[in-house]
Amino acid sequence: MQVVVSDYIPTNMTSDLPVLLAAVSILSALHLTFQARRVGWSRMKHKIMPPTVTGPPEFERTFRAHQNGVELYSIFLVVLWISGIFCNEVLAALGGLLYIVGREIYFTGYIHESKKRLPGFYLVLCALFFLTVVATIGIIQSFLDKYLNNGLL
Amino acid sequence: MQVVVSDYIPTNMTSDLPVLLAAVSILSALHLTFQARRVGWSRMKHKIMPPTVTGPPEFERTFRAHQNGVELYSIFLVVLWISGIFCNEVLAALGGLLYIVGREIYFTGYIHESKKRLPGFYLVLCALFFLTVVATIGIIQSFLDKYLNNGLL
Amino acid sequence: MQVVVSDYIPTNMTSDLPVLLAAVSILSALHLTFQARRVGWSRMKHKIMPPTVTGPPEFERTFRAHQNGVELYSIFLVVLWISGIFCNEVLAALGGLLYIVGREIYFTGYIHESKKRLPGFYLVLCALFFLTVVATIGIIQSFLDKYLNNGLL
């Protein structure tokens, strides 16, 4: 007897996609792109033509503010997605939004004065620490689930 | 007769892997690595030893051309994979190939003269914009599918 | 009545998450963050305040050592995850651990002397080459599986 299982996909795979993580990722990517744009505006304002990356202090602070965002971005994506896939998507998305807010506070603070980058920097670190903890909990859960469950079968 | 298959996924999962996205990702990674190699060749040509990153204009343009690729690479990966997983893999792969072509035109143009980086730069922006639009369409579709469908059941 | 479900994946999906890849990714992210921390310590030691990135040779080597890690990190994540998802998770995880070890040897060598970065650099290249080969094998397998299998059905 043939069993037709076309209606029996027990979960709708398309609606199980991590849409919150995707939305936060796109938002963070757009935000980082906008920071790059502001570096471009700073170049025009201070007449610093590529490939030069040194110049008046305000330009150098703007440039470094964006670079710091680039340096941490891949790390952010790693902890965002692993915490969301392995542990809890909503918690991960909230941590991701906190990161983006921290990045903006960091950037706007840094442009005005080097010391003013610190509040945003600490917020970014909090967000990354939170996401790393959630990700680690998720990884440990998966290890136990994978090896403990199979051992009991 | 109804067969409960709640633990079974009725499609061959290995052939559902996003192989086009993977291929474009590997290609983009190899391309970015090759750009780093060309920075190394430029160092040898102009005798600029690490960690120094300043020197003759041609070296500085080569160095910045690669750095710009690094700055946008994670953003590219985000929009590539989200557009491919959430919307359409073929469209995403084509956008990804366009990005790689733009990156090469940017790099070779920039080495010769700063202004010659612009055609490639605009092509890269077009590719990223296209991928972002496709990704956003996919995310909106998934939101509606996840929350609208569940509400109707 | 028994339903033969040999084409169905009869395992609990949550234990099929690539937990080894996730663990190696988190480890690599923490390691790169620690390298950024050491750049901060070097700033304090040599009294180089942001946004300045030039100064005594030891600071400039520390700064560039971290930057090189940032430049390759996204490439590493691409080949790590594609090799692990498309080919073999254990092989990918081992390649990932090799990469992290190479990154550390590179960083500590570079701080002392530019030439001493080379052993770690070659180890990093070996790890990336290994992961790229495994990823490519996996992609080719998936292409054949996806298009050859469907053609035979």
Protein model, in words:
The structure is a homotrimer of 153-residue chains. Chain A has 153 residues and is mainly alpha-helical. Helix content of chain A is 76%, strand content 0%. The first copy, chain A, has 4 helices and no strands. In chain A, helix 1 runs parallel beside helix 3 and helix 2 runs parallel beside helix 4. The longest helix of chain A has 35 residues. The two termini of chain A are 30 Å apart. The relative contact order of chain A is 0.12. At the B-C interface, helix 1 and helix 2 of B face helix 2 and helix 4 of C.
The fraction of residues in strands of chain A falls at: under 5%
How would the global form of chain A be characterised? Answer: elongated
Radius of gyration from the alpha-carbon trace of chain A, in angstroms = 21 Å
User: Largest sheet of chain A, described in full?
Assistant: none
Distance between the termini of chain A: 30 Å
Number of strands of chain A: 0
Mean pLDDT reading of chain A:
91
Percentage of residues in helical conformation of chain A: over 70%
Secondary structural class of chain A? mainly alpha
| Count of separate DSSP helical elements of chain A | 4
Low-confidence stretches of chain A: 2-13
Identify the quaternary structure here.
Answer: homotrimer
Chain pair with largest interface: B-C, 34 and 41 residues
**Series of H and E elements of chain A:** HHHH
